[in-house]
């Protein structure tokens, strides 16, 4: 069988810790060599890509997507095919989606269901977080099995969506304790679900039924309070915590302060929160406003995106996801008379890399190395797939993007590759354009043309106890045991 061999010549390799000018040689999906003027003329069928003047970066890892998610009476329209196709067109070569069981349902069955949906469709590699939406001994056993046998090292708890997915503090305490035992990272959707339920009632009673009611019933402090509470519970059992979709300044500030106090917590802002804001909920066009509805909401304070970007640049926040969960206008219209029925979710999987480059690097807030850290390497480290992913190095997977930092593109629903009929970044001009995307050693996108194959991507199992997250945690356990022994 012919080998699949690619040489990327003349580019500047950018990793999270350093940049260098060198060629990259890829064979059968793996980076085989890096060096200056690699001589490979003897190889027949060598595909040579000229990257002179361009950056060669690790493919993006989107830590937060919901493809074909059954939610609020419908399914998100981007499935694992259109979603990952759009991802690679935007320079992302791996997504981490969520298997979300209903209360009372098996976590393992949910995992198998989601994997069954993804495997035949994915155009790039993927992994699955699993949600814990209820608590019992069976849930504990299944978490252990998922960690041991299925490569799941992250479990998400919802503090919102009361009655549907929400868990209470005592259940979180149990779930966090279990995460700690099995070497997983606890993730939280941090919003106070009880307050949202009461706030929604109040808004509807006042006759506020439009999309603005979605933000008004769950202001920043509802997110900030839950963030603080999750950190407190996680810290009480010495469990590492990952706060998904950090949307507000106040919540981000709590995470930053906690990190400075030494707590092991990571924050994930998303493309939507970095690229646009909640003033859109007051847009006179209902469809436009509803298209921005997601939980937690975008914040009306227009200084929020820049603030989040600055924290991201300074390591107060760690990674970027998207919460990509797309619904067409007719689906959003399920809530035309009642904002609580508008399916929650926005796009982002295709545009995240360009939005972060434009708002972060082009604006001078972060450098190219930090860009790689927050779009790829940190995710790989936290979820224990580094340096297989998140790094251009010999032996790493050939998930690579050739990035033009000077070129621009205008984001539009007319040209995007997602299935959804709206784009929350419509009209945004972004510097930073992916020219070529290589996923698993194959060119899947080149000069505007996709060459994807559904099912080409693989499920990436993740080992427990990632060192990047757990070395401090385990050391603290040792210290505690020593202190206790001395006390008794
Ligand atoms: Zn989500």
Automatic annotation (TrEMBL):
UniProt modified residues of type N6-carboxylysine: 156
InterPro entries cross-referenced by the UniProt entry: Amidohydro-rel, Hydantoinase/dihydroPyrase, Metal-dep_hydrolase_composite, Metal_Hydrolase, Metallo-dep_Hydrolases_sf
GO terms of molecular function: dihydropyrimidinase activity
Ranges where the Amidohydrolase-related domain occurs: 55-444
Modification after translation: Carbamylation allows a single lysine to coordinate two divalent metal cations.
Pfam families: Amidohydro_1
GO BP term, pick one: pyrimidine nucleobase catabolic process
Any GO CC annotation of this UniProt entry: cytosol
Residues spanning the membrane: none
Protein family membership: Belongs to the metallo-dependent hydrolases superfamily. Hydantoinase/dihydropyrimidinase family.
Entry protein name: Amidohydrolase-related domain-containing protein
Natural source organism: Pyxicephalus adspersus
């Amino acid at each position: 069988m012919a080998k699949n061999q690619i040489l990327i010549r003349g580019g500047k390799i950018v990793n999270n810790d350093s940049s260098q000018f060198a060629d990259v040689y890829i064979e059968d999906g793996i980076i085989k060599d890096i060096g200056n003027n690699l001589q490979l003329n003897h190889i027949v069928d060598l595909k040579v890509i000229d990257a002179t003047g361009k950056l060669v970066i690790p493919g993006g890892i989107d830590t937060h997507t919901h493809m074909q998610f059954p939610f609020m009476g419908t399914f998100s329209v981007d499935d694992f095919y259109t979603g990952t196709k759009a991802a690679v067109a935007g320079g992302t070569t791996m997504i981490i989606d969520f298997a979300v069981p209903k209360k009372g349902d098996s976590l393992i069955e949910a995992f198998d269901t989601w994997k069954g949906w993804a495997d035949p469709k994915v155009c790039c590699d993927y992994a699955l977080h699993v949600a814990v939406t209820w608590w019992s001994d069976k849930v504990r056993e299944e978490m252990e099995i998922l960690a041991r046998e299925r490569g799941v090292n992250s479990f998400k708890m919802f503090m919102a969506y009361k009655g549907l997915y929400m868990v209470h503090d005592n259940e979180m305490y149990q779930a966090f304790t279990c995460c700690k035992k099995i070497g997983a990272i606890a993730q939280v959707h941090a919003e106070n679900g009880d307050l949202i339920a009461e706030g929604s009632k109040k808004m509807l009673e006042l006759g506020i039924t439009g999309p603005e009611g979605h933000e008004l019933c769950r202001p920043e402090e509802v997110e900030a309070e839950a963030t603080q509470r999750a950190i407190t519970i996680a810290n009480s059992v010495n469990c590492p915590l990952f706060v998904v979709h950090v949307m507000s300044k106040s919540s981000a500030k709590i995470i930053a302060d906690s990190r400075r106090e030494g707590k092991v917590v990571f924050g994930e802002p998303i493309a939507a929160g970095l690229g646009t804001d909640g003033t859109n909920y007051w847009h006179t066009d209902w469809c436009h406003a509803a298209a921005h509805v997601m939980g937690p909401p975008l914040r009306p304070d227009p200084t929020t995106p820049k603030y989040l970007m600055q924290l991201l640049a300074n390591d107060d926040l760690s990674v970027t996801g998207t919460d990509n969960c797309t619904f067409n206008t007719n689906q959003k219209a399920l809530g035309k008379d009642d904002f609580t029925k508008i399916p929650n979710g926005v796009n982002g999987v295709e545009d995240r890399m360009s939005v972060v480059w434009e708002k972060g690097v082009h604006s001078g807030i972060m450098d190219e190395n930090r860009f790689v850290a927050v779009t790829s390497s940190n995710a790989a480290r936290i979820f224990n797939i580094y340096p297989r992913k998140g790094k251009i190095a010999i032996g790493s997977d050939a998930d690579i993007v050739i990035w033009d930092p000077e070129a621009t593109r205008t984001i539009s629903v007319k040209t995007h590759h997602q299935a959804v009929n709206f784009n929350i970044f419509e009209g945004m001009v972004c510097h930073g354009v992916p020219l070529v995307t290589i996923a698993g050693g194959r060119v899947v996108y080149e000069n505007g043309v996709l060459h994807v194959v559904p099912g080409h991507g693989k499920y990436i199992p993740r080992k427990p106890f990632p060192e990047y997250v757990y070395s401090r945690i385990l050391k603290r356990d040792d210290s505690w045991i020593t202190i206790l022994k001395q006390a008794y």
